[in-house]
Design brief:
By secondary structure, this protein is of the alpha+beta class. The chain contains two helices and five strands. It has a five-stranded antiparallel β-sheet with strand order 1-2-3-4-5, covered by helices on one side.
Length: 85
């Protein structure tokens, strides 16, 4: 079992490496990261971390795991049409 809040915090930090993305972490019983493309109101996504350590979008797409947070963030950046910093 993974600490999902730590997973989301690490994911948010990795997302911040992508200059076109803004991220807000929402703590609570179901922590999540709300990510958006700074240049589009329509390109946004909510990401959660499962107890198994998988990062999952609001529509069920598995981005990756806590074993490779940078790759998971890069997949989301690709989906949201963002560039690396």
């Amino acid at each position: 079992m993974v600490d999902t809040m730590t997973g989301i915090a690490e994911f948010a930090e990795a997302v911040r490496e992508h200059i076109d993305l803004a991220v807000r972490v929402r703590p609570g019983s179901h922590p999540r990261a709300e990510v958006r493309n700074r240049f589009s109101e329509n390109l946004c996504e909510t990401v959660t971390c499962s107890d198994e350590g998988a990062f999952v979008t609001s529509w069920g797409y598995r981005l990756g795991t806590v074993d490779n947070v940078a790759d998971a963030a890069a997949r989301l950046a690709y989906l949201l049409a963002a560039l690396s910093a």
